[in-house]
């Protein structure tokens, strides 16, 4: 018969090992998330390249259709946001974008470029089942995952996943105006400037795409 004390010690050792492993993984994951919010280089002045393979998806309009198209090109400013709609938290953030868009001048389109790990099935299920609060802006589904390929900086830092550009897609401001009041003000100040000024790096980061 096995010694009960030895068995208890073995169980304790296994539990401790599992706990230590989980802690290290958690610590590593946290470190990655912290690093993801750090700017790595300067993207101000670079251009956003929109692939021609995106599909426009407007789930909450009566005439909603999915079609191949491009976002409006002749506008003074544009906001590009790269969003992972496989992430529940990122989906919830779409509601916060609705509030911000209502503050913007109508001449500033918000181009929500969406990526997904499940071919947008979960997200479309939520939208078409009306389990999400309606929003008025269209989404641009990156069905062939070309946006990150053509704009690799979106994988360098969360700060680069949301940007304000001028009419020719040159980046003027980077950062998340939804979760940072400072960045939000920078966006609004840039948009409301009466004249064109020198491009400047802006602070802030986004929680999209995880």
Write a structural description:
By secondary structure, the chain is α/β, with parallel strands linked by helices. It has 2 domains: 1-36; 55-191, Glutaredoxin (3-Layer(aba) Sandwich), CATH 3.40.30. Helices cover 34% and strands 15% of the residues. It has 5 helices and 7 strands, in the order αβββαβαβαββα. Residues 5-41, 63-68 and 201-210 have low confidence and may be disordered.
Task: Show the helix and strand layout.
Elements: H1 4-36, E1 55-57, E2 66-68, E3 77-84, H2 88-103, E4 110-115, H3 121-128, E5 139-141, H4 147-150, E6 162-166, E7 171-174, H5 181-191
In short:
The protein is of the alpha/beta class and 210 residues long.
- Do you know the CATH architecture of the largest domain? 3-Layer(aba) Sandwich
Q: What summary fits the major beta sheet?
A: 7 strands, mixed
Strand order of the largest sheet: 2-1-5-4-3-6-7
CATH superfamily label of the largest domain: Glutaredoxin
Percent helix among the residues?
Answer: 25-40%
Low-confidence stretches: 5-41, 63-68, 201-210
**Beta-strand percentage range:** 15-25%
Overall shape: globular
Radius of gyration: 22 Å
Class by SSE composition: alpha/beta
Mean pLDDT: 74
Q: How many domains comprise the coordinates?
A: 2
Number of helices: 5
How far is the N terminus from the C terminus? 51 Å
Q: CATH class of the largest domain, please?
A: Alpha Beta
């Amino acid at each position: 018969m096995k010694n009960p004390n030895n068995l208890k010690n073995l169980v304790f050792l296994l539990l401790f090992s599992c706990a230590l492993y989980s802690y290290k993984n958690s610590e590593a994951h946290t470190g990655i998330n912290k690093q993801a919010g750090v700017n790595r280089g300067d993207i101000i002045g670079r251009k956003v390249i929109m692939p021609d393979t995106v599909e426009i998806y407007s789930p909450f309009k009566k005439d909603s259709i999915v079609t191949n198209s491009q976002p409006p090109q002749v506008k003074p400013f544009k906001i590009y946001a790269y969003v992972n709609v496989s992430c529940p938290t990122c989906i919830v953030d779409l509601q916060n974008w609705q509030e911000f868009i209502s503050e913007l001048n109508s001449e500033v389109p918000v181009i929500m470029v969406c990526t997904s790990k499940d071919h947008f099935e979960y997200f479309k299920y939520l939208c078409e089942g009306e389990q999400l609060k309606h929003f008025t802006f269209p989404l641009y589904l990156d069905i062939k995952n070309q946006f990150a390929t053509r704009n690799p900086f979106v994988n360098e830092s969360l700060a680069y996943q949301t940007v304000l550009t001028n009419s020719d897609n040159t980046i003027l401001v980077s950062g998340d105006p939804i979760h940072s009041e400072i960045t939000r003000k920078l966006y609004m100040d840039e948009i409301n400037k009466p004249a064109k000024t020198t491009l400047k790096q802006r602070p802030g980061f986004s929680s999209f795409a995880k």
